[in-house]
Structures are given as C-alpha cells and as structure tokens.
Amino acid sequence: MKIEILQEIVKKKSSKKRFAVLKNLTNGKSELFEVGSPLSDELNVHKKDIENYYNLQKNGIINETNIFIENYTKPIEVIIVGAVHIAQYLIDFSKNLNLMITIIDPREYFTKKQTFKNVKIINEWPEKILEQLQSNNNSALITLTHDPKIDDPALQFALKNKFFYIGALGSKKTHEKRCQRLKDSGHTKEQIDSIHGPIGLKLGGKSATEIALSIIAQLVLEINKLKI
Amino acid sequence: MENLHELEITEKAISWIKFNKKVVLATVISTWGSSPFRTGTKMIINEEGDFLGSVSGGCVEANVIEESIELLKNNYQFKKLEFNVSDENAWNLGLACGGNISVYIEKIN
C-alpha cells in the first residue's frame, strides 16, 4: 500500500467524511472510494458489487472477487449540554469510539475556565444553537446541568428531531418533575419514555467518573442496537 | 461500532515511515467461526519488530510479526496468511477461540 493512501485516510477521517478503502488482493494495490468518485479500470468491472457493499456498509472480500472493502463510517454526533465535571470524563471514555462531541453550555464560567480536548465547545443557550447544528436521527443528546432552563429546551429539540439517544442526568425525583414539564409542554408519553432518565446503565457508582462510564456504556449499547 | 484505533494506527505508520522505518500493515480480511475481532482490524509492524494494534486479541500476533519481518527482507509486496483451527500450527499459536482468520500483510511504501 502506498503511504499516500494512508495520508488520505487520515485526512478524510479528520474531515468526518464517509468513505471506503478498496484493496485488490491479487496485486496489493489500494484505492479510496466514495459516492460518485471514479474507480480504477481494474475495479470498475465490479462497480455494482462495490457500490452494493458500500451502501450496506459491509466489510470483507466482495463475493467471487479478490477485492477487499473496508468502510469508514461517519462518526456519531453527540451533543452534551453542560460543561460540567462529568463531561470531562465522557470525553476521556469516548476516545477511539468514533464519536463527534459538541458541548453546549450558556454559562461562560464553565466553558471558558475549563480545558476540554478535541471537542467543540459552544458558549450559548441550547435553543439558540441547536437549530444551527446539523443534527438528525443519527445524533445523541446528553443533558448534564439538571437545570430546567438549560436542559429542557435541548430535550424538546432532541425529541422533535428524533435523536436515537436522549439521556438526562438527575435523580428519579428530578426526572419525574422533568417528565411532567415535558408533558405539560405537549410531548406524548411515548416521546417522554424514550428519554433515558436517570441516565446511564446501573453500575452502582456515584463518582463523576463512574457516572460518565455508565453513560458511555448506555450510549454504546444504543449505538449497537441501531446496527442490528 | 467502528473499529477503535484505526486513526492512531494509521498515523503511527506514517510517522514510522517518516523516520525511515520499513513498515508492514496487517489487516484481517476474513473470519469464520468465533474469531474475536471483526474484518478490517489492523496492526502495523516495523523491521525492528515494534508493533501497534492487533489482529486477534493475542492468538496469532507473534506469527504475524514474524511473517511481516520476513516480508520486509524479500521482494514480495504482500502475503496472505491463513490461521485455522484444523491447522496444527494454529493450535501451537494458541488460536483458542475456535475460529479461522485470514490476515493480509503488505508493505507500506
């Protein structure tokens, strides 16, 4: 494989694009592929099969050929509301999980005084900024402030936009009150029940690290459910 | 979920090459039975035997490293390695998972 291919993979991965690497196992040549990009003559013969595997995001040797395809999927967008202590550990645990994290917090002190590595931090009210982010049903929302005026608008937005995962930090009591507020603002029971609250798998931990781990574990579980 | 350390491995391979090291990329190209890692899992090896990543969670790495160093010494660009439970060698290597895997090793240049 040529080093240029590796450099291109790094470039494409950093720009969060979806693409595939095709390897001709007979001659050792590799090339990159994405929708609409031309194939080399020798691979063009199998264009249909390649596109089929690409569309299904299937990895492996394409049937009855000597071509190996490996898909690089787009990272999953995770929006965290609340630049709090737990958010730091969420970032730590999400390393290498192919997640693209954005943190939103209108409180300047939280966003300006802390250092967060490799994530986008937006110092703004969720209702102002969420519309601008290109979120869709492939996005996840984690609310951590348990302040209704910050968390609730974000939860409402995520419910409306059918996020595949919505989790809200807070005790059972806090969550009950939250559900009531969402009900009062016109959300259905089904919508409200889709929120993971209290957030996280029950690991029994109480520290910020343990709570973050339980949240990431639950998120991974839900991501993998999408693929079954 | 997508394989975890791909970017780290790719970046490391590039940096090794920049330091004039000879590098082999090993990729799992097919699996049968209960192989631990999915297709596409990667590992890189340089001529000194340093490596990053894995192809099986420890079962066949030693052999892949050996074959990779061998590949760097000859004129071939790539080689396909098969590890399988019915293969006596595989038992010796400890492929205890009861699966078979094919690993494609290739030079980076």
Walk me through the structure:
The complex is a heterodimer of chains A (228) and B (109). Chain A folds into two domains: 3-72, no CATH class; 76-226, NAD(P)-binding Rossmann-like Domain (Rossmann fold, 3-Layer(aba) Sandwich). Helix content of chain A is 42%, strand content 18%. Chain A is built from ten helices and nine strands. The longest helix of chain A has 19 residues, at 208-226. Chain B has three helices and five strands. The radius of gyration of chain B is 13 Å and the shape is globular. Chain B is an alpha+beta fold and 109 residues long. In chain B, a hairpin with a 4-residue loop joins strand 2 and strand 3. The N and C termini of chain B lie far apart (30 Å). The A-B interface holds A 1-3, 6-7, 9-10, 13, 23, 25, 28, 59-61, 68, 70, 72-73, 96-98, 220, 223-224 and B 1-2, 4-8, 10-11, 13-14, 17, 25, 27, 29-30, 38-40, 77-78, 80, 104, 106-109.
Concise summary:
The complex is a heterodimer of chains A (228) and B (109). With 228 residues, chain A is of the alpha/beta class. Chain A contains 10 helices and 9 strands.
Secondary structural class of chain A: alpha/beta
Helix proportion range of chain A = 40-55%
Q: Main beta sheet of chain A, described?
A: 5 strands, parallel
Count of the separate structural domains of chain B: 1
